């Protein structure tokens, strides 16, 4: 059975390996200092939050990061699930579902009005999971790099 725990400083090396897998999946490169800064912010658990999934043997198999922000359409905050990654060799085993459920439970406990996230259109495997747990809103994402 998959267990989910808050990311702590002692998870650094396992987290970093999963983070690297996530970045590879999205063909992204992030400077080492940004990665280390991100990890520190997650461990601080103030503005960024994170959890790590472990299998029955205690091996780290997945990570999730999220944050909350004020919203104009609600008196509560919105919870943005920013990063979700499960090791390829265990996908389909429930870790992704458990990580999303963890964020949902956290958001409910902290008074958020909703949890939302983005993914690439062609990420079919993940989208099958997401379609079983959430509503696809039909919105298209735009951004301006600064």
TrEMBL record:
The keyword Secreted does not apply. The keyword Acyltransferase applies. CDD domains: NAT_SF. Keywords: Acyltransferase, Transferase. This is Acetyltransferase (GNAT) family protein. Residues 2-146 form the N-acetyltransferase domain. The lineage of its organism: Bacteria, Bacillati, Actinomycetota, Actinomycetes, Micrococcales. Pfam families: Acetyltransf_1. Gene3D superfamilies: 3.40.630.30. One of its GO terms (molecular function) is N-acetyltransferase activity.
